[in-house]
Amino acid sequence: MRPRDLVASARKLLGKGKKGSPRQSDLKRALSTAYYAMFHALCWNCADSFIGKTKTSRSQSAWRQAYRAVDHGFAKSQCKNNSVMVRFPTEIQDFANQFVELQERRHEADYDPLSKFTRGGVHTAIDAADVAIKKLRASDNKDKTAFAAWTVMRNRSN
User: Fold this and answer.
1) At what angle do helices 141-152 and 24-50 cross, to 10 degrees?
2) What separation in angstroms does the CA of 74 have from each of 17, 22, 103, 137?
3) The model's pTM
4) In sequence order, what DSSP letters do the residues of 75-126 get, joined into one string?
5) pLDDT tens per residue, range 23-34
6) How many CB atoms lie within 10 A of CB 81?
């Protein structure tokens, strides 16, 4: 899945230009989809960093394995580790912070039947996800690779 397509899907769920308030189910799906845009951007970053960016220069099965190696909970935990995240450039820190925020909001949207969201709040979350994804993509390759390793590989001390 392409992150930009997921961002577009999230925006479509908001029903831009339609009269009246969107249904809560559409707002919740939009918020969840915005999170998944970020998650898939992280997966894509890991696969490209570890295996290669072009189909002709990589093993497709290895790329898929690296893509699928990202674990939601572990990645969130690593992104919340401020003592390490401060070593990354601001753009990657911004992505990590937004990833944590949106994952928490996605859990609320997906699992709390009493939660309520507004079109404006969800629109803001989608925009923030879109900006964070663009910042990650624009980061230096060495920083993106280090971030990929940090969010996928468990640190073993001696």
Assistant:
1) 110
2) 38, 33, 12, 21
3) 0.93
4) HHHHHT-HHHHTTS-HHHHHHHHHHHHHHHHHHHHHH-TT----HHHHHHHH
5) 999 999 999 999
6) 12
